[in-house]
């Protein structure tokens, strides 16, 4: 579903990504993990056309540079903190639906699905971060895209908010949605990922994960040592770098 | 570029502008100033044997040159840089739209909001002046059209400044700096050149109207008054050299050129911008 080849990014004169190769198959949930500044979010942003890059990214076989509009139709995006494009929750979803060429009739069922029906007419600026994330998830699901791109989906949430969003994402994963997410939270990775790709200093780590990642995962009971990271009952699969 | 998407984004930008403090405070103060200036312009006019219309027009003209750029430069600067900082711009571009559609939608939406603000401000002034009688609608229309062209140009320049600055604070500072340059420093520079007699009248006039504010000032004066002396000695020289028609076309082209070049340069930067 997603193929990234030799991805390189330079920001402010600094090489942020350096020759990243990554594949995400249909129905997979791949977590890109790594310490702060490793380049996790940048990978996602390249896919969405937010950052200029060298290399090639295809989504469902569509080159994201050659046909960005068609490629992005296949992708629903949930940023780290949901943006308020319009005043109200319903207005935000109606705008995104219109931009995606999706019927406005999809909006209310999605608001209900993420538990925001009662807040549909409220100002998004008054929403808690958790409510914003649920709204962003509803927006990402407009048009039922086959791929979800999630940027640190629970990083800025309190515990209750994390549970809410994780539950919604688990249901999507169980329904066979392809998910590419960045994360530095082990609970999130454990709950969702079927495969983990470790980034460090802009490169995919092959072999042992960096100490910062090992420590973070170990703190919450993840497997230690060379990362064969699985999530709960999910089969432990090799790192992307090992697999390719 | 898909017109349907651009229209959606224009309307979104317009709604965002109408909700923003800029529109409410800017438009309200513009209304107050326009009405006050128009009324004061009419005061005691007959005593001095001066046409009410001329005085009101000149008073409004000066308000336009000071206030319209002050409203529109920050409008353009703040919208792009603010939405870039809070992630909204990146979120929009992550949808199935092109950067060209987002840029066009935002810029045209800002210009639409600016148009509405000017329409309300001048509308109130027109009512104030009109209620006292003696108003020529054609003169007023030229003034409004000049203000609109100046506002659109300054909005585009504000957007360019936003693209060139990395943060909202820097963009707003750059907008205020540009306002000072266009409103005051350019005039001082031209005056200094005139005093030094370093350049001839043609070059002096070209330099003068390269400033869009001066170009619009000259354009409106050209339309609303038959007296050439209001254009100043260099303006009189330009009328003699080019004729009123050619001069008016040149002034419109110079100002619109600013808008087009600023928009194109802003888009070139926007297309390359990394939204991180």
Keywords:
heterodimer; A: 244 residues; alpha/beta; Rossmann fold; 2 domains; six-stranded mixed sheet; four-stranded antiparallel sheet; 10 strands; disordered C terminus; B: 276 residues; mainly alpha; 11 helices
Write up this protein.
The complex is a heterodimer of chains A (244) and B (276). Chain A is built from 9 helices and 10 strands. Chain A has 244 residues and is an alpha/beta fold. Chain A has 2 domains: 168 residues, P-loop containing nucleotide triphosphate hydrolases (Rossmann fold, 3-Layer(aba) Sandwich), CATH 3.40.50; 69 residues. The radius of gyration of chain A is 17 Å and the shape is globular. Chain B has one domain. Chain B is mainly alpha-helical. Chain B contains 11 helices and no strands. The interface between A and B is medium-sized, with 28 and 22 residues.
Quick one: biggest sheet of chain B?
Answer: none
CATH class of the largest domain in chain A: Alpha Beta
- Quaternary structure of the protein: heterodimer
> What class would the helix/strand composition of chain B place it in?
mainly alpha
Q: Rg of chain B from C-alpha positions?
A: 20 Å
Poorly predicted spans of chain A: 220-244
Rough shape of chain B? Answer: globular
How does the overall form of chain A come out from the CA principal axes? globular
Largest interface: A-B, 28 and 22 residues
CATH topology description of the largest domain in chain A: Rossmann fold
Largest sheet of chain A: 6 strands, mixed
How many distinct domains of chain B? 1
Q: What are the low-pLDDT stretches of chain B, counting only 5+ consecutive residues below 50?
A: none
Order of helices and strands of chain A: EEEHEEHEHHHEHEHEEHH
Q: What distance separates the N and C termini of chain B? A: 24 Å
| CATH architecture descriptor of the largest domain in chain A | 3-Layer(aba) Sandwich
The chain-level mean pLDDT of chain B equals: 83
């Amino acid at each position: 579903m997603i193929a990234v080849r030799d991805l390189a990014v330079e920001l402010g004169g600094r090489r942020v990504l350096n020759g990243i190769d990554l594949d995400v198959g249909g129905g997979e949930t791949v977590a890109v993990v790594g310490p702060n500044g490793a380049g996790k979010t940048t990978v996602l942003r390249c896919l969405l056309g937010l950052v200029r890059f060298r290399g090639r990214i295809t989504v469902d076989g569509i080159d994201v540079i050659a046909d960005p509009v068609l490629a992005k139709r296949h992708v629903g995006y949930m940023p780290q903190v949901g943006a308020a494009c319009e005043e109200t929750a319903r207005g935000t979803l109606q705008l995104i639906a219109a931009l995606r060429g999706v019927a406005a009739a999809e909006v209310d069922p999605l608001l209900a699905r993420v538990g925001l029906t009662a807040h549909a007419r409220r100002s998004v600026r008054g929403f808690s971060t958790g409510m914003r994330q649920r709204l962003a998830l509803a927006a990402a699901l407009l048009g039922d895209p086959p791929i979800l791109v999630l940027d640190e989906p629970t990083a800025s949430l309190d515990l209750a908010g994390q549970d809410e969003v994780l539950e919604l994402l688990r249901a999507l994963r169980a329904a066979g949605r392809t998910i590419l997410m960045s994360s530095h939270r082990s609970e999130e990775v454990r709950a969702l990922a079927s495969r983990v790709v470790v980034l460090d200093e802009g490169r995919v780590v092959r072999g042992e994960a960096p100490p910062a990642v090992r420590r973070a995962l170990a703190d919450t009971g993840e497997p230690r040592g060379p990362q064969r990271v699985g999530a709960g009952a999910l089969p432990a699969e090799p790192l992307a770098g090992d697999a390719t | 570029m898909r017109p349907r998407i651009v229209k959606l984004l224009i309307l979104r930008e317009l709604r965002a502008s109408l909700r923003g403090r800029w529109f409410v405070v800017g438009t309200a103060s513009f209304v107050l100033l326009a009405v006050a200036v128009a009324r004061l312009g009419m005061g005691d006019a007959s005593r001095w044997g001066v046409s009410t219309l001329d005085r009101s027009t000149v008073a409004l003209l000066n308000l336009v040159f000071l206030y319209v750029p002050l409203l529109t430069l920050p409008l353009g600067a703040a919208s792009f840089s603010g939405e870039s900082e809070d992630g909204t711009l990146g979120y929009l571009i992550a949808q199935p739209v092109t950067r060209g559609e987002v840029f066009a939608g935002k810029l045209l939406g800002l210009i639409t909001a600016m148009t509405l603000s000017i329409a309300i401000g001048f509308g109130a002034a027109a009512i104030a002046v009109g209620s006292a009688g003696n108003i020529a609608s054609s003169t007023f229309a030229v003034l409004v059209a000049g203000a609109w062209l100046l506002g659109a140009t300054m909005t585009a320049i504000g957007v360019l400044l936003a693209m060139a600055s990395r943060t909202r604070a820097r963009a707003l500072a750059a907008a205020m700096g540009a306002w000072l340059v266009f409103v005051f420093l350019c005039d001082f520079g031209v005056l200094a050149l005139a005093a030094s007699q370093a350049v001839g009248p043609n070059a002096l006039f070209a330099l003068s109207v390269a400033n869009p504010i001066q170009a619009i000032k000259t354009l409106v004066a050209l339309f609303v008054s038959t007296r050439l002396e209001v254009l100043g000695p260099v303006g009189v020289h330009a009328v003699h050299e080019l004729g009123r028609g050619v001069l008016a076309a040149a002034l419109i082209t110079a100002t619109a050129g600013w808008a087009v070049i600023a928009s194109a340069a802003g888009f070139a930067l926007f297309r390359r911008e990394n939204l991180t």
